[in-house]
Amino acid sequence: INENPYWSPDAAIIPVWEEHLETVRKAGSSTGAVVEVEATGVPAGWGAPLYGKLDAELASALMSINAAKGVEIGEGFASAALSGEDNADQMRMGNDGPVFLSNHAGGVLGGLSTGQPVVARVAFKPTSSILTPRQSVNEAGEQIDLRTKGRHDPCVGIRGVPVVEAMTACVLADAFLRHRAQTGGGAFVPGGQGRV
After folding, report:
1. For residues 74, 78, 81 and 82, what is the CA-based torsion angle, rounded to 10 degrees?
2. Contact 160, 122 (CB under 8 A)
């Protein structure tokens, strides 16, 4: 993802996006985007079952990003079309303890992290600062046509990727600190050997 300007894990989609964004840019317009973030190494138990739910905290933080218009955790809106059987993240016993067979919940169940990757998506609107004249009203109440001049981003979602990552990291850092304060546990080192 760090080897292309779109932060995409799929190299095959890059030429398609380049062509689309060039067309949008030349037209003086803009396009929206969906940014997905996946946080691995989050242990089970962070968050709260009522106030301070991990998914609620994450959704709130991600919605506070400029141009964000929607947030999904796990399957998100797609879960509304699933049955209870299809959506349930079932478990079986593995060699090192319980193992989830799916991650439809995006790593958060009942407001608490499950130990699976925390997955969220943020929908970014097309920026309204476009070169195409738009109808508006001025301070005198007169109908006018407004055209934005200056810097033009054909897709603000591209700039949003590191912001989404940073917001997710901030929420998880807060969740870790609250968990440590409540349980008296030591520090969790992602990728490390657990508590230090």
Report:
1. -30
2. yes
Q: Mean pLDDT per 10-residue run, the chain (196 residues)?
A: 85 93 92 96 95 96 97 96 94 93 96 97 93 91 88 87 97 96 70 44
Give the torsion sign (CA, 73, 69, 38, 21): positive
User: Among 160, 149, 152, 150, which residue's Cα sits nearest to residue 125?
Assistant: 160
Among positive and negative, which fits the CA dihedral 73, 162, 114, 51?
negative
- CA-based end-to-end distance of the chain: 31
CB 46 within 8 A of CB 56: no
Could you give the 3-state DSSP secondary structure of residue 195?
strand
Half-sphere exposure of 177 (CA within 13 A, CB side): 6
Residue 66's region, left for phi above 0, alpha for psi from -120 to 50, else beta, is beta
